[in-house]
């Protein structure tokens, strides 16, 4: 695991969280219960404090960095897609930030909102509850539908479940030279299926 103190501040990780061994946490980072942090994520708390509240996730290759005297926060059940960058911003409870999106300093994404993939949210943007934001720069498109929020929550639940699955089974190994006969397939753990379409 790559954990580093910075000027005396040591990352804090709840024992109920899962941090992939390739992720890097530096300095003033606070990770709550049930949080999933994916491979190659970088959380560099050498300016402001970085906080991932209970049940949130920060997926593969995400970057989280702060600004002096400002907390960067992903509130509970926040869902941060692969490759996203969060810089000095606040992500509301139960919100989703799509893959490869960038959220800049002072921006606030409202609770239950969705930022579409590859969107750019400008510094100082102040969102409200349940907004669909898309584009470069990101703009309000419409309200998030019940089906979209259901889909988002289902995927967040799957990442929360992935915490315990990873704690129990993820191990560094030597790869096989060929596929074994009757190789099993992974099965999802959530039986319900989303009613809405993915954004």
UniProtKB/TrEMBL annotation:
InterPro entries: Hexapep, Transf_Hexapept/Carb_Anhydrase, Trimer_LpxA-like_sf. Residues 180-199 have a biased composition (Basic and acidic residues). Residues 178-199 are annotated as: Disordered. It comes from the Bacteria. SUPFAM superfamilies: Trimeric LpxA-like enzymes (SSF51161). Belongs to the transferase hexapeptide repeat family. NCBIfam families: PRK13627.1. PANTHER family: DYNACTIN SUBUNIT P25, GAMMA CARBONIC ANHYDRASE-LIKE 1, MITOCHONDRIAL-RELATED. This is Carnitine operon protein CaiE. It comes from Limnobaculum eriocheiris. The gene is caiE.
């Amino acid at each position: 695991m790559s954990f580093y103190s910075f000027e005396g501040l040591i990352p804090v990780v709840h024992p109920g969280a899962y941090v992939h061994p390739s992720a890097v946490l530096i300095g003033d980072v606070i990770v709550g219960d049930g949080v999933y942090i994916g491979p190659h994520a970088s959380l560099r708390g050498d300016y402001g404090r970085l906080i991932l509240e209970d049940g949130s996730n920060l997926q593969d290759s995400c970057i989280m960095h702060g600004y002096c005297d400002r907390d960067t926060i992903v509130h509970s059940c926040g869902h941060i897609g692969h490759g996203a960058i969060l810089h000095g911003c606040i992500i509301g409870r139960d919100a989703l930030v799509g893959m490869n999106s960038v959220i800049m300093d002072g921006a606030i994404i409202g609770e239950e909102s969705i930022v579409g993939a590859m969107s750019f949210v400008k510094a100082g943007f102040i969102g409200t509850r349940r907004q669909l934001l898309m584009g470069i720069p990101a703009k309000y498109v419409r309200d998030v539908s019940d089906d979209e929020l259901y889909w988002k929550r289902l995927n967040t639940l799957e990442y929360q479940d992935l915490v315990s699955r990873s704690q129990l089974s993820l191990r560094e190994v030597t790869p096989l030279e060929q596929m074994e006969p009757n190789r099993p397939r992974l099965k999802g753990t959530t039986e319900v299926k989303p009613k809405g379409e993915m954004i």
